[in-house]
Structures are given as C-alpha cells and as structure tokens.
Design brief:
Elements lengths: L30 E4 L4 E4 L3 H12 L9 H12 L1 E3 L5 E3 L13 H10 L3 E6 L2 E6 L8 E3 L9 E3 L10 E8 L5 E4 L3 E2 L1 H7 L4 E6 L5 H16 L3 E6 L11 E6 L4 E14 L3 E8 L30 E10 L3 E8 L5 E10 L2 E8 L3 E5 L4 E11 L8 E7 L7 E7 L2 E7 L9 E7 L8 H7 L1 E6 L2 E3 L9 E8 L2 E2 L3 E3 L1
C-alpha cells in the first residue's frame, strides 16, 4: 500500500522555533483478502498480511499459492490470547512499514519471524507453516522405510545454545517507538549451561509487548529442543510433507514412538526422499513465559552392549588405478578397540578387514554392487550389531560442465567433474565441425575425429566465424562415461 500525504505549514516563529517539525501519522493499512470468507476487508491478521504481500507486491498468481495453508495460519493468528493485565488480544498481528529499497526476501523473513511462522514451497505453491503443535501424530516412520544412513543430533551444542532472549518491538503506546520488551530468561537453563547465553531479536512488525514475549519464548523453546534426525526413505516418504507430525520408531537405536515434525523434505525419483525431522511435542508450544519445558527421554537403549557405528559412507576415490575409494564411519561407543568390516557380494563375504580407526581404503573389487557391514568391538570383546550400506564400483560419471575458452584461431575445452567424481580420471576428446544428431557412442566414433586425451585440450588452426563441437567423455580403468557435447 502506498500513501501520499501533503501538508501546508505557515511560518510561525513561536510554533516552529526549530524549523519544520518531523511529522508522524498513524495509518490504517489496505484492505486484505481473506480466503476463509472470500471477502476483502481491513485486517492486521499476520497470515493475511503475508498472503497479500505474495499476491499484490510479488504478483504471485493464485494458482501458485496454497490457500489452505494460509487459512489454517489465519485461524491461529486470530486466536484470542489473555494478557497478564487480564485483557485479550489476537495471537499474532502484523503492523508496520518497510522501505521499497528492501529486498522481498528480507521483508518476508521479518514478517514470518513476527508471527512465529516459516515459508513453505511445496508442489509449486507458496504456503506458510505456523510454529504450533499439529499433533498428535497420525503418521509413522519405521526401519523398513529407511534406505540410507540415519544421522542423529541428540541435542544442541553449547556453542549454538541460547537461554535468554532480549530484543525490541514497536510500542503502539509510545507513538510507535522501537522499545525493548521484557527479556525472556530461562533460569534453569542458565544454571545448566553455567552462564547466560543471550540472543537479540528485532520484532519490527510487532506492536504488542506480550506478542513479542510470546514469540521470544516460543523461539527459545524450539531452539532448545535441538534434537534432529536426518534420514532417507524409500518412496513411502512421498506421503510426508513439511509440518507433518510423525512418530519415529527405530528400536535398534532405542527410539520408540517419539514425536518429530518434518522440517525439510526433498524428493528424488531414483534416490528416495530425504527428510529432516525436528523434535516436536505439545510441551514446546506452551504460552507460559519463562517456564522451562520438561523433555521426555530420547532413547530407551538397554544397558550394556556396544552401540553400532553411525554415518557409514563410501567415497569413490581413484588413486593410481589401485585404490577405488574408502569407507568411513563414526564410532558411538567410547571404548571401541577396533571395527570389523565385511564386504559382501551376492550374499557371500569376499573380504574381511580389521580396522583400528574409522576409515579403510577399498581396492581390488571388480565393477559391481556390494554390501558392507561394519561392527564395533570393545575392549571386553563385545560386538555391536552391524551397520549396513550398499555401494557400487562403477564407470566414471560424465563431465558436469565444459568450459570453452576462445583463443586466436583456437578453442580450449576444460571439462569439470562433480564433487563426488573419482580422482585419477582423465578425459577423451573428439572433435567435429558439424553438430551430431545425438551424443551416442556410435554417432561420435563414426562421425567425429578423436583428437586427444588429458585434463583439457586445445584445438588449433580453426576458421573464424565457424561453429565447432567437442564430444568429451570421462575414462579410467573401470570404464568410460557417456559423451557430452560442448561448443
């Protein structure tokens, strides 16, 4: 909303002894569309303000907006909350202004922060997810759905912890002046951490001190609940979406039906669904200010026994056509003496390696798919359950990009591989003055000329104003990649 004001001031030495005064006005903003009633009327409902910003300022078409998410968020913003003075106010409102020079990303970040929400973008639609308890959980994640390593963060490290929130809001009772709100300090957490660790937050679109305190309290609780679980699911994971509350059941890790919220979701048709889970529960979202929540236990692991290794991964690295890569993992138990590594092909153990550390090089395997089992062994000889991962020895990947440098009657092609490509690979260069119908091996070999091999290639004695084509593939002792075209 843009407002134009015109003032006419007549000179008066007594009224304006210090010159032209600064003028402040209180403005009731534009009318907002409410998808719950399909009406347009004045409102400072936080979710409706953000919806209007998407539709009117950013010109996002209605087909690209998740109106159901904004309806749910608007209902939460309209909830009546009782203040310590015995009065009531809406839970979340947005009031304020911004400079047109500010970036939309920064404005949206401040708006979402001021109503305890975060933006979402799912299935091509912009939505909103409120910081609220959406449970109890109706979905469940079980071991048979997991197809890759499970990464667990049991608690927030002290270097990232916060136990006190200080900050500012715009006080409507003081002519909309930026003012400090009463800090939220968790004395119990300060005692646990050994010192006060504070963080400052600016709630620039908040005009109620109690809304600022509610937001600070909620932010502090969510940050303190630092448990994270990152995992990759099979295609069952397509059913989960950010904001869903799920029960995580991993008996082998001692996690039994704990509630988590889906924080991030990435879908890969061939690699499954990557999901980041964050600790969730009704105890996080209490409105009581300054009261620490009591967290349930994370795991119910039995005493004794050895915890299996975690974060098992295979990294392909080619060193002199001998070393094909390495396996790495992390030992959880403190008294691990060594680890046993079994390489399995078609159900049979083909290599057994005893490793004193957390890494071992892999060599001498033909091309194919293998399974590795890693077990931790402690000083008493107790053996953990295996941590399992599948990996493949395959031909090198094709270049992901080719940099072309134009010289004096010459062209230089410099291919680049991805971060996970094997070291020791080289490139094969084929050249043509005509574009091929496709980059298949048959077309390239029969209709172009092989000019060399190496990390880059310079083709000289070329004509000015003519277009030339390189066809390049990666090669090593385990095979050749498909060709890629560059011109």
């Amino acid at each position: 909303m843009t407002i134009t004001l015109r003032f006419t001031l007549f000179y008066d030495q007594e009224k304006y002894p210090h010159g032209i005064p600064n003028i402040k006005v209180e403005v009731w903003g534009k009318e907002l569309f409410d998808p719950r009633s399909n009406r347009t009327t004045w409102s400072n409902n936080g979710a409706l303000v953000i919806l209007d910003y998407y539709r009117r300022y950013l010109n996002v078409p209605d087909s690209d907006i998740d109106f159901n998410a904004f309806k749910i968020a608007a209902d939460l913003c309209d909830e009546s909350v009782t203040t310590p003075e015995g009065k009531s106010e809406p839970r979340y409102t947005l009031n304020g202004a911004y400079e047109l020079s500010e970036s939309p990303a920064s404005i949206l970040e401040h708006m979402h922060r001021c109503i305890g929400a975060e933006p979402t973008y799912i299935a091509g639609q912009h939505g909103i997810l409120m910081w609220a308890y959406h449970g109890p959980a109706t979905l469940k994640i079980e071991p048979h759905q997991i197809i890759d390593t499970v990464s667990i963060t049991p608690e927030l490290p002290l270097s990232e912890a916060t136990n006190a929130i200080y900050g500012t809001f715009v006080d409507a009772e003081q002519k909309y002046t930026k003012t400090d709100f009463s800090p939220i300090v968790m004395d119990k957490w300060v005692e646990e951490d050994g010192l006060e660790i504070k963080e400052n937050i600016d709630y620039r679109f908040v005009t109620s001190p109690y809304q600022a305190q509610r937001l600070a309290n909620l932010y502090l609780r969510k940050k303190r609940a630092g448990r994270r679980v990152q995992l990759t699911l099979n295609l069952d994971g397509y059913a989960y979406r950010p904001g869903d509350v799920v029960l995580l059941d991993l008996p082998n890790l001692g996690i039994k039906s704990l509630e988590f919220r889906v924080a991030e979701w990435k879908f890969h048709p061939q690699e499954g669904v990557e999901i980041l889970l964050e600790e969730d529960g009704a105890y996080i979202y209490e409105d009581i200010i300054g009261k620490p929540f009591e967290r349930p236990p994370f795991t119910t692991l039995p005493t004794g026994g050895v915890a299996p290794p975690i974060n098992l991964a295979f990294m392909p690295v080619n060193i002199g056509d001998v070393v094909q890569g390495y396996l790495s993992w992390q030992d959880v138990a403190a008294d691990v003496r060594y680890n046993t590594v079994n390489i399995i092909e078609e159900g049979k153990v083909i290599q057994t390696i005893q490793v004193p550390g957390e890494r071992v090089d892999i060599a001498g395997l033909p091309r194919g798919t293998y399974r590795v089992e890693v077990r931790a062994v402690n000083a008493a000889g107790a053996i953990s359950q295996p941590t399992i991962r599948d990996f493949s020895i395959v031909a090198p990947p094709p270049p992901i990009n080719v940099d072309i440098t134009v010289g004096m009657f010459s062209l230089t092609a410099a291919p680049r591989l991805g971060d996970s490509a094997a070291y020791g690979s080289t490139f094969e260069f084929w050249f043509s003055d005509k574009k091929l119908p496709d980059a298949s091996e048959h077309e390239v070999i029969n209709h172009t000329t092989k000019v060399g091999q190496g990390q880059f290639w310079t083709q000289e004695n070329l004509k000015v104003g003519h277009e030339y084509y390189f066809y390049i593939r990666t090669i090593n002792s385990y095979g050749k990649s498909p060709f890629v075209e560059a011109s």
